[in-house]
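Recall the central idea of this unit: under ordinary conditions, the amino acid sequence of a chain determines the structure it adopts. In this exercise we apply that idea directly, starting from the sequence alone.
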Amino acid sequence: MAAGTNATGSGTQMAMREVLAIVPLRKLTAAQLVSLFGDFLAIFAIFSIVSFRLHGSPAQVSGIMVAYMLPQAFVGPVAGVFADRWNVKTTMIASDLIRAALVVPLVYSASVWQIYAVLVALSVVSAFFTPAQTIGLRSLVPLEGLMSANALMMQMYQLAQILSPALAALLIRLIGESACFWLDSASFLMSAAILSTLPIGRKAAAASKEFSSVFSELIKGVRFIFTHATLAFTILSMGAGLFAVRCYSALIALYVRDILHRSTGLFGTLSTLVGVGMIAGTQVVTRLAKTRSRERLMMSGLFLVAGGILTLAIFGNVPVTVVATLVLGVGVALVIISAQTLMQGQTPMEMLGRVTSSLMSVLAVAQVFGLVVSGSIAQVIGIRNSYFATSALLGLIAAAGWRVVEQRRERAGSQ
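Accordingly, the structure predicted from this sequence is:
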C-alpha cells in the first residue's frame, strides 16, 4: 500500500475540522460523550460500593470488569448478525432506553452478585449497541473521514474517563452512590433523544427469521474475516494491544507500591496520564495518516506500547514511568484508531455489524485474559518479568506485522 493513501484508497485524509463540520457526526459524538460520562460515573460508584461499603475481596473487585466485558465475547457475534438486519437508529435508541432502565436496580443493589447481574445485563444490551453505532458512523462519514472521526470518538471517550472520577467522588461524598446511577440512567435517555434526530438512511435488511439463517450469516461473517488477510491481522493486532494494556493496568498499582515505593496518589496520576497520552495520540494519528498507511500506523502503535511496557520493566523510577505511561497511551491510540478505520473501510456495509461485533468479542476475551492471567504470572515470575514477557510478545507481533506490510508493499510496487 502506497504511503499517502488511506486503507481504502479513497483519496485524501479529511482533517478533524472538516469532519466536525458534519452535523450528524457532531450529534453522534455528543450522544456518545453524554452516555460515556454517565457510564464512568456509574462504574466509579460500583467500585466504591464493592470496595468500601461491601468490603469486597480483590477477586470481587476485579470481577466488576470481568462481569461487564465477558458477556460481550459470547453475545457479540450473534448481536452483530441482528445489527446487520435491524434498523440502525432504532437499534441504538432501543439499546439506550433499555440500559436506562437496567441501571436503576443498581440504586437498590445490596450484594456483589446483584451488581454482577446488572452488569451482565448491561453488557448484553451494549453488545447490540456497539455494532449499530459503528454502522451509523460509517453511514454518516465519508471513507476519507473515518480516521478523524474515530480519533474524535476516542477523544470523547478519554475526556469522559479523565473528568468523571472527580465528579463521581464529589457526588458520592455529598449525596451518595445512588446519584451516579440516576445520572447514568438519565444520560442514556439523553443519548436516545439525540440519536432520534440523526438522519441515518440505512434501513433494516430483509432476512429470514429462522435460527439457521442467523447461524449461516454468523459463519459468513467469520469466514469473511479469516479470508481477508488485512482484517484478520487487524483484529489480532488490536487484541494483542489491548491484552498488553490490561496486563499493564492490572499490575501498575503493585508496580507503584513495590517497585516505585509510592502510594495511591501516583497510581491515580498514572491512570490519568494513560488517557492524556491517548488524547495526544489522536492528534498524532490524524496527522501521520496523511503520509502513512493505516497498517504502518497500527504496527507503530504496537511498537510504542511494547516500548512503554519494556521501559517500565527496565527502569524503576518515577520520571521514566511518567514518560513511559504517556508513550503507552499514544501507542494505544495509534493501534485502536488505525485498526477501527481499517475495519470500517474494508468491510462491506452489509457485513459491518458482524465484523464489528466479532472484533468486540475478540477484544473482550483479550482484555479478560489479560486481567486474569497477569496477576497469576506476576506471582510466579515477578512484576518486572511479567512486563518483560508482555513487551516481548507484543514486539514479536508488531515485527511480524511490519514484515507482512512491507512484503505486500514490495509486491504491489513490482506489479
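DSSP finds 14 helices and no strands in the chain.
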